[in-house]
């Protein structure tokens, strides 16, 4: 039975690991089935939060603006995780954001994990919903602050323990950690040439400059430029870069 591991949960600004950012990171280190240490930080994503994210998490734009710097916080988060086996609810989703950050910063990040969502789908009745809130209700676990990273972590840890107690003896293979696999490409920062072209483009067409975040990637600016060209057409004479 797995008794030493780290439970993780992230809150993000959206669903795309390439273009969205980590907003909050939470983790709990478990030793001998006892939580021995926790990690919880709001991270400044340096962008306005979608209303849906604010409503879901309760994290306001003001709270986010006062959050910690991304790189230093995630470096500390990786140090907290160490080489432990990860446990999470739909853990591949959180892993995808961590993997993208790691690749962008030339860090290796390969981990084995156990997913409570996969376990719930395997063992619980088909008609039973498998989202975190529904699993908490099913196992009688009180939710305090839904969709806050550390609260979700603590709930996931309790769900994992319940699943272990109820089902592991009869199907130990289902609880064996497996390697997480998620392929990503490094996201490079936008180039000065891209930004120069974009500025010339909006001036040529007399349109407002779109909101661009300071950490925008090269691919993000390329997509934005393509969208503007599709909407307004190319400049009659392409300026030299």
UniProtKB/TrEMBL annotation:
InterPro entries according to UniProt: DnaQ, Ribonucl_H, RNaseH-like_sf, RNaseH_sf
The keyword Ribosomal protein is annotated on this UniProt entry: no
Superkingdom: Bacteria
SMART domains assigned to the protein according to its UniProt record, in alphabetical order: EXOIII
A GO molecular-function annotation: DNA-directed DNA polymerase activity
Gene Ontology BP annotations: DNA replication
Annotated Gene Ontology cellular component terms: cytosol
Keyword vocabulary terms for this entry: Exonuclease, Hydrolase, Nuclease
Residue span, Exonuclease domain: 4-169
NCBIfam families associated with the record: dnaq (TIGR00573)
Matches recorded under PANTHER family: DNA POLYMERASE III SUBUNIT EPSILON, PROTEIN NEN2
Protein name: 3'-5' exonuclease
């Amino acid at each position: 039975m797995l008794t030493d591991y780290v439970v993780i949960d992230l809150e993000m600004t959206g669903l795309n690991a390439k273009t969205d950012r980590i907003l909050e990171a939470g983790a709990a280190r478990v030793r001998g089935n006892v939580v021995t240490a926790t990690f919880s930080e709001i991270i400044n994503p340096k962008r306005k939060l979608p209303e849906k994210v604010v409503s879901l998490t309760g994290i306001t734009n003001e709270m986010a603006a006062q959050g910690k710097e991304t790189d230093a916080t995630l470096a500390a988060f990786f140090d907290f995780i160490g080489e432990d086996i990860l446990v999470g609810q739909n853990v591949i989703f959180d892993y995808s954001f961590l993997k993208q950050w790691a690749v962008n910063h030339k860090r290796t990040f390969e981990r084995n994990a156990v997913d409570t969502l996969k376990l719930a789908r395997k063992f619980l009745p088909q008609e039973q919903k498998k989202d975190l809130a529904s699993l908490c209700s099913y196992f009688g676990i009180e939710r305090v602050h839904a969709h806050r990273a550390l609260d979700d972590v603590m709930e996931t840890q309790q769900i994992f323990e319940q699943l272990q107690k109820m089902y592991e003896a009869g199907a130990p293979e289902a609880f064996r950690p497996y390697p997480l696999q998620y392929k990503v490409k490094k996201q490079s920062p936008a180039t000065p040439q891209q930004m120069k072209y974009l500025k010339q483009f909006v001036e040529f067409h007399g349109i407002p400059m779109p909101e661009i975040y300071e950490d925008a990637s090269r691919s993000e600016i390329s997509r934005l430029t393509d969208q503007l060209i599709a909407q307004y057409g190319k400049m009659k004479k392409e300026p030299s870069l």
